[in-house]
Amino acid sequence: MNRDTLRVRELLPPSADPAAECGGRELLPPRAARELAELRRRAVAPPTQPAFFSRRRILVGATAAGVSAALAVVGQRLVPQESETQPVAYTPPVLRLKPVEGESGSAFLLAFAERVEKLPQERAGGAYRYLKTWGWWLNTAGDLPGGPVSAAVPTVTESWIRRDASGRQRSAYGEPLYPDPGQRETAEKAGLLAGTGEEDRIYGPGQAPTVEGDEWGDVAPFSTDPRELARQMEEVSWDGGMLAHGVSDLISYAARSGPVSPRLRAAALRVLARSRQVDVATTTTWQGRRVIAVSQSETYQGSTQRESVFFDPATGYPSGFESALFGNARSLNITVPATLGVGETLDRGWVSSTTERP
Q: What is the CA radius of gyration of the chain?
């Protein structure tokens, strides 16, 4: 195993090792090896004045000088090469989205929804919804006297959540990464590290952290009629209005109460099918899973940002996301095209206690 491959493996907690799901730990799978080579080829020196964006929704061209912000760069690698005098930033290659063939994206999603609707109703194997995800999050503070400071921590998260939003969350943190190694001490003092080692917390009713937001409870229960469901969604503000993220959050919120009915999953997909703002494609994720990608894009001063949400083709459940940047990189310390944020569901299911896994 070469030194660069060893370095990549060191950055991941043991449970996040991609090779662990590919039959062994001795070598990276071919896809990972190819992407590692691409990461190294596309390294660039970071600019002196990075941009700042919101944590979940990264708006191209947005700035917030003097304001602390969190930048979701789940998957961004920030590893300086020994031969460089300046730190360099790596991001994984943007996923290749293959547009659906032979039919429109709307027709594809409608057919997908019809298949999902015919699935049998899942049975909860216990009171806790189990979810395992991985991601790398870069936190940035722009209000420090010496200028912007950033730090990233690769993280694998497991959660066991009950209907009343109580439960357990376990996070395994990798080695902290810094775009500028000289900012390490400042970043730590500024509280930018997501965590270190392993963190295991128990939450009482209503206290468990969630991604989708509690505002969905104001419009629940959700309709299985696509028109009425779309109206309900309009009452909730999600991630700057990106419809695919809204559908993902809605399904995730509904899953707090138990397995989401096939009819509701199908209705949510039909809401997407009715939109003229989304593109539909298929792709293979970083872990080698085949998914359906629903994307929206926006352009600002030469920068185009593509937001994609992945759906499991077998179940219709959300299974990850990618934020990708094309064109002008503006003041980000990455080459383009580049991934700004990536995330993937590794496992999901229902269990009877906070010590079980599916």
A: 20
- Residue 192 tokens read as 């930018």
List, as own/partner pairs, every contact residues 184-188 make where C-beta atoms lie below 8 angstroms and the sequence separation is at least 24, other chains included: 184/151, 186/144, 186/146, 186/149, 187/141, 187/149, 187/150, 187/151, 188/151
Distance CA 278, CA 275 (A): 6
Beta-carbon count within 10 A of 59 CB: 14
Which residues form the domain of 129? 3-351
- Residue 38 is assigned to a structural domain of this protein: yes
* Helix, coil or strand: residue 247: helix
Which helix or strand (DSSP H or E) is residue 238 part of?
none
Domain total for the chain?
1
CA–CA dist 264, 126 (Å, integer): 21
pTM of this prediction exceeds 0.85: no
Closest CA to 247 of 226, 57, 68, 179: 226
Q: pLDDT tens per residue, the chain (358 residues)?
A: 333 333 333 333 343 333 333 333 334 445 444 444 544 444 333 322 222 223 344 333 332 222 222 333 333 333 333 333 344 444 557 899 999 988 899 999 999 999 999 999 999 989 999 999 987 766 666 667 776 666 677 789 999 999 888 999 999 988 877 766 777 888 788 887 877 789 999 999 989 887 666 789 899 999 999 999 999 999 886 555 689 999 999 999 999 889 999 999 999 999 999 998 899 999 999 889 999 999 999 998 899 999 999 999 999 999 999 988 899 876 655 567 877 777 899 999 999 999 999 9
Is there a domain that residue 356 lies in?
Answer: no
Does residue 14 sit within a domain? yes
The Cα-based distances of 295 to 62, 97, 116, 232 in angstroms read 20, 9, 20, 21
Answer whether residue 358 is part of any domain: no
* Of the candidates 144, 136, 83, the residue with the CA atom closest to the CA atom of residue 286: 136
DSSP string for 49-83: S-----SSS--TT---TTS-EEE--TT-B----TT
How far apart are alpha carbons 234 and 246 in whole angstroms?
9
